Amino acid sequence: MGSSSACILTADVVSNVVLCREHFRLTLRVPGFPEARPGQFVHLCPAERETGEYGVWDLQEDEVAWRGRTEAWRERLGEPMLRRAFSIAGLRRAERRSPQIEEEPGSLRRGDRLGNPIPGTRSPEPDARILNPEPSCELDVIYRVVGAGTRWMSTLTAGDRVSVLGPLGNAFPIRTDKRHAWMIAGGVGLPPMLWLAEALQRAERSAVAFCGARSADLLALTFTSRAVAREGGEERPHRSATGTASGIVPSSDARTATLCTTEFNALNTPVVIATDDGSLGFHGHIGAAMAAYHDANPVSPEDLVIYTCGPEMMMRFVAEFALARGIECLVCMERSMACGMGTCQSCVLPVAEPSDAAGWRYSLCCTEGPVYEASQLLWVTPDRGCRV
Ligand SMILES: Cc1cc2nc3c(=O)[nH]c(=O)nc-3n(C[C@H](O)[C@H](O)[C@H](O)COP(=O)(O)OP(=O)(O)OC[C@H]3O[C@@H](n4cnc5c(N)ncnc54)[C@H](O)[C@@H]3O)c2cc1C
Ligand code: FES
User: Total domain count for the chain?
Assistant: First the structure.
């Protein structure tokens, strides 16, 4: 579950598409983005203004660069703000490498890794990106508009620039010794699962996605219609006004997973849908839907791994369900993350630590996580008896 090196890179917005109520998919072109894996996340903020203070940075940002960034936030949002964390929902690398251009001695090496500043480096040229010898890369994040930062993101259009710090955190391990993998996602826990489904498909695991939302119109998925596919000979995704599907309708008793969404369909991954208000699929929370599916489709605990991401109460239900049955469960936790790199301590959560006298310790979710074994998580801080 170890993390890879991270960079600060300037990305171009390729598109910013409305997926459903309050949810957008932002696609960024990020040349030189390092190797990353499902479960990892990026930290985003506006790129600096067009003053030459953009491009690829090492960690030794000077005062001017820092002022440039905070001013950019202030200008757009009326207040200085920190970066915002988003799971990587998809990543595509171009085959073709951009031409390599020789760098002058002392110039900033493109794609410098965090923690490895190069002595004597200088600020990048205004169009440093063309010097990047790395292949181009498109990265998706799916976000829900909840506050000032995500509101700013919803205003981005093609050609705008965004500063990307990442990839950060650890990743979901792919358990090749287990044939079955279930992904349980609630709300904005869905994005990392879309990319995880790709990795599971490549590893030839038998995967099922369980996706929950408060209501059908808050599910950032596209529902398919088999009826259209049969008549037209070509599958055309569609979303009806309510988000319900014609053709293959998600099971309302959660005992059957169906190929009802375009995104998971493309990865041959059946889906169970649950909504709190019963507007689509199972009426209730996605943990209960998973339990109903498990009753109808039992799998040997040794042969199953569960991945979960979403609201903490939901993940705790899933984790406890799995632990009670001896099923391995990996939980993608979320905390407010000011720095994303282990410096500010804003993201702590309590984890079991047998070697500690108290039996527990705080873990930094941004560097040790966000993915934890369910057995590690305490959910409440022992000496306070309350959530952190
Ligand atoms: C590792 C990680 C991955 C994430 N992945 C995604 C993702 O894929 N898609 C997505 O939409 N969101 C994701 N988030 C949550 C996202 O970071 C917050 O929604 C975002 O920072 C809100 O910024 P804002 O300025 O719009 O809202 P703010 O004005 O900062 O806050 C608005 C509301 O959201 C709450 N909030 C803010 N940050 C967080 C947070 N980190 N966790 C929980 N509640 C928060 C605040 O308490 C407040 O109630 C992730 C968070 C983490 C830590
Ligand atoms: S977000 Fe700063 S230490 Fe984790």
Answer: 2
Residue where a domain terminates, one of 284, 312, 332: 332
Q: Cα(150) to centroid of ligand 1, in Å?
A: 8
Note the pLDDT tens digit of each residue in 216-232: 999 999 887 543 333 34
- Please, are residues 139 and 93 in contact by the beta-carbon 8 Å criterion? no
- Say how far apart CA 45 and CA 67 lie, in whole Å: 13
337 CB less than 6 Å from ligand 2?
Answer: yes
Show the tokens assigned to 171: 């990743």
No. of H helices and E strands in the chain?
A: 7, 16
Select from 42, 79, 86 the residue to mutate for testing ligand 1; criterion: most ligand atoms less than 8 Å from CB: 86
Please check whether residue 367 lies inside any domain of the structure. no
What is the distance between the alpha carbons of residues 36 and 40, in angstroms, rounded to a whole number? Answer: 7
In sign, the C-alpha dihedral spanning 278, 281, 287, 292 is positive
Q: What is this structure's pTM? A: 0.82
- Helix ranges, the chain (H): 63-77, 148-154, 190-202, 226-232, 262-265, 286-296, 312-324
Model confidence over 22-58: pLDDT tens digits? Answer: 999 999 999 999 999 999 999 999 886 433 333 333 3
- Give the domain range for residue 319: 180-332
